Structure formats: C-alpha cells, structure tokens
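User: Thanks for the earlier help. One more: 5-methylthioadenosine/S-adenosylhomocysteine deaminase. Can you show the sequence and predicted structure together?

Assistant: Of course, both are below.
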Amino acid sequence: MFDLLIKNAWVLTMDESFTEYKNGYIAIKDGKIAEVGENKENLESREVIDANGNIVLPGFINTHTHAAMALLRGYGSDNPLKVWLEQYIWPVEGKFVSYEFVKDGTDIACYEMLRNGITCFVDMYFYENAVADSVKSAHMRAVLTTGILDFPTPGAKTPDEGIQKTIDFIKEYKNDEFIYPAIGPHAPYTCSPSTLQKSMQVAVDYDVAYHIHVSETLHEVEDIKNRYGDTPVKHLNNIGVLNDRVLAAHMVHPTDEEVELLAEKNVKIAHCPESNLKLASGIAPVPKMLEKGVIVSFGTDGTASNDDLDIIGELSTAAKLHKGYNLNPTVLPAKQVLAMATRDAAKAIRLDKKIGSIEVGKYADLIIIDINQPHLQPLFDPYIQIVYSSKGSDVDTVLINGKVVVENKEVLTVEKQRVLSIAKKWREKILS
Ligand SMILES: [Zn+2]
C-alpha cells in the first residue's frame, strides 16, 4: 500500500539518461519515490492524483536567493548600483532587519516560490533561524546560510560572531530533513582572507557547503586586483578556499584561466541571469563554463534585484540570452537548461543523492505542469515547451516530501491573505 500515487503522467525523470514515461506513474511511500514507470494496474494507494496527461518534473531548485528581500521588491529600482544600495537597500535593512522582518519576508518568498514550482532554495541573509521557521511552516526544503561580512551586520557585530552563529545553527539543524545548514561568507570584497579561511575550516569540520558571491561586477574584479594582486577566483585559490564545497553565485567575469580553475576545483555556480541584467553586472560566460565541465545551476537572487522568484523565467532568459550573445542558437538547449535547474542544481548543493531527479529512493519533491492550455499546445517537445512557452504560473501541483503543498494552483501551506497583509504592513513601515 503506497501513500500516494500519481498516474497518467508524462514523467520527465531528469535522470542522467533523461528517462521519460509518456503514460507514467509515480508511487510514493514515506515521503520518498518508491516506484516510477509506465502506468500499471493494481497499484494500491491511500491517495491518487490523476495527472491527466500533464508533465511531472522534479521540483525546481533555486540555488541563490535572499528570500526576506521579498519585502524590498521593486524598491529603488533603476538607479545606479551604488545609489540603489546606499540610498535604498542598506538604510532600510539597517533600520528594520530583525527576526520579524526576515520571517515575514521569507513567508512571502516561500509563497511565491511554491507557486512557481520551486521546492528547494539556497538562502543567504541574516536571522536564518527566522528563515528556517518560515521554511518549516511552508513545508519546503532549503540550504540556509547567514551572511558573514567583515563589518557589522544586522546579524552579527563581527565576522567571528557571524561564524559562531553559523556553527550554532549548523549544530541545531545538522540532521534535519528539510533544513540544510551551510556557511555563507558574503564575498571576497567584503571578507578578509582570514574570514574566508576560517569559514572554509567550518565547512570542512562540519561537512557543509560554502556559499559565496564571486566575480559579480567589474568593480569587484578591479577592487580585488588592487587589494590582492589577482582576480577574484585566483585570489580564492591563492588563499586555499577554492574547492568542491564552493557554490559561487553570479560568476559574471571570470577569465579563461579562471574558468579552467573552476572546472579543475569542481566549483559549482549559481547563475543569476535576470539579476545580472537588471543590475547591469554583465553576462556570465555560461557556455564556456559548461564546455569545460563546470556545474552551473540557476538562482533568482533576491527579489529586490530580479524582481521575481521564478526559475522557469530564469531558464527562458538564460537560454535566449546566451544564444543571442554568442550568436549561436545551439548553446544552452532546453533539455540541458532544465537539467541545470534540477539534477545539476542538486549536485551544486551536494544533495544529489536525495533530490534533483525522479528516481526510486529520492524524496518525492515533484511538480505537475498543466499543459492542457492553449499557450502550451500543440506540444512537440516537452523540454522546449517548458523552457520557451510556460511560466511559473502553469505549475498546477507541487509535492514536497510526498505531501501536496500546491493544489489546483493554490498554495496550501502559506496563507495568501496573510502574505498580502504582511506586504502591506511593511510597505507602510518602510515608507514612513
Ligand atoms: Zn546575492
């Protein structure tokens, strides 16, 4: 007897050989995938979902965001980066960031991510205990890091305090099925070599991931060259913190030599194309990184610089952006792009044994995309249709750990009216 059975599904497993079941089923027991294959008779299950021919995929993994910044969506947009940060974002964060701010902001973000088929995300912010509480009540999965910086933050007065808070957080959640703690030194330009090295020691000691922003802007590249005599990736390598634990967000401006180094050290990338475009940071050399074998996944970044939390949007943007920029329509094909947002993203966060594809033994983190809509028909190739024609809003059903959290396009675990009133409350506070 299974707990839940999804039948009549077009299953795109996203496993290494892109196995598909055109009239497939997925049987779930104890939160995990117990069986997957072509429909068969006589399967007994407590609950049954008839997918009605719709597409079932592994849930999307958003490998870089600052969820609580949902409260700053659209605030001060279209200004130069320095003005935006110094006159809008940082003053508000300095004044308001607290447990309440982070919990409320993350609730809004979780609602939106669930609605768009994101089942797992990587966060870097402050008060990660608030993020964890929000993730738990939304019944999501997340890799959580406290941003560690050399100057005082809303979370810690010194980098050492930030590191200690991270260690405490890791100890609290080390064996959790939903919260995966990691360490988050903010960036090479905001963390001294010593802070970066101490953080790596924690990552090694506690066997967790190391999440950091790297080579986001040309300004950063110049700054690091002036301070340390080398470009950011080489600088990280020089001080001994470049290895397979590293999930580097952005990576817009690596040199060819640095791309080789990323491949050699098995560094993972969170590519954030929409944020990089909106903040005018540049265009990351994704085809080159992929060609060298670097694992590249997708991040939305925070909503203040995007301004949504929709991985399908990132896929579509990235697939077209790199074709246009490289004058080559064969780079980033739809199938590869979808793999980057699922199984490769799971590798990027070191959870590929647990999530990222529809395979027996993995957690049942699944989404059903409603393809019975005029804008998604006729359907010749499901990968192409999802990347180029669908939107997050076409996700009809979301399951996390075998539990239905979105049904008929309605989020069940985060209350919509409450999220709307939170947003209104904070808008008034920020404007006053
Ligand atoms: Zn970021």
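User: Great, one quick takeaway?

Assistant: The two ends are 57 Å apart (CA to CA).
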